[in-house]
Amino acid sequence: MKLAVFGAGAIGCWVGGRLAAGGADVTLIGRPRVLDELRDGLKLSDLDGTVWTVHPKLATDVAAAREADIVLVTVKSAATANAARELAGQGSAVIVSLQNGIANAEALRAALPGRVVLAGMVPFNVARTEPGHYHRGTSGNLMVEAHPTVEPFVIACRNAALPLETRSDMPAVLWGKLVMNLNNAINALSGKPLLDELADRSFRRCLAAAQTEALDLLEAAQQPVAKLLALPPRWVARVLPMPDWAFRRIAQRVAAVDPQARSSMQDDFTAGRPTEIEFLQGELVRLAKQLGRRAPINAKLVALVRAAETGGKRDFTGRELWTALHRP
Fold it and tell me: Which of 183, 255, 298, 320 has the most beta carbons within 10 angstroms of its beta carbon?
């Protein structure tokens, strides 16, 4: 199978690299500043300490996707429309969206008539730890929309020992991922590694408030939310504010997080890139408006992240953030 990754950043490099390690013919298509670091090899590492070095094909021109059987789209959500324009006319490959947010596959499908476009979901965190080295810092299985044409991707993941689930409920899966991803903003505003942030009960209370608000809105909209962790989403929101000793005991059974993990939004702050806040908390603010309701916690997080993008505060303590989220 020939596989192309369009938008080779942290997620694209890690997933594409793992598939290459499993024997797939992989081409990473991305910006020169990313690919130049990979000329001598792409280094990957995992939670359990396993390390791979692979040499996938590298390309900066979307024409490299023309011969692919499957194209994995891993660009930021704001770049989806542009990605669709670039992929138009570049062969007939199945398109799999492995992006944050809930509407990317739908947008790609609308812009690429006649092409098979499938929704996918990456539950884990990947960080660039040094030039050419990408590390997975949290646990979870890839998920992709069930469809006959996705079987080569399933086989490639199996050959790479990369756990993958095919799902018939991808809207619920994508909303479940979005609820989990509400922590991206909180982690970015803390300026801390993910493990340190989650060790602070005040930050966890902020996340619980954002998740509870989101789940209430989704319930009102009659939108199912998939269980992606060992606990259902409502239970996760109830566990988060528990005292530290109780949270630690339960969290160890729910998901693995290592000391190197951090949110992609924190990396966006560091690099001076726009964040995906409009496709995370922003989706909930829009949903609340459609329902004639409000989403004050998530709306405040949008405002704080927007301010941080232009030099605003990025080193909140947990108590400072809790106060800011509840300030009129």
Answer: 298
Question: Contact at 8 Å (CB) between 132 and 40?
Answer: yes
Query: What is the CATH code of the structural domain delimited by 171-325?
Result: 1.10.1040.10
* Residue of 230, 201, 233, 231 lying closest to 216 (CA atoms): 233
pTM value > 0.90: yes
Q: How far apart are CA 64 and CA 243, in angstroms?
A: 52
pLDDT tens-digit map of 167-217: 999 999 999 999 999 999 999 999 999 999 999 999 999 999 999 999 999
CB-based burial of residue 131 (10 Å sphere; 0-12 exposed, 13-18 middle, 19+ buried)? exposed
pLDDT in tens, 43-73: 999 999 999 999 999 999 999 999 999 999 9
Closest listed residue to residue 141, CA positions, set 173, 116, 171: 173
Helix, strand, coil share of the chain (percent; to 5):
50, 15, 35
**Record: fold of 2-168:** Rossmann fold (3.40.50)
C-alpha torsion angle, residues 199, 134, 263, 104 (rounded to 10): -140
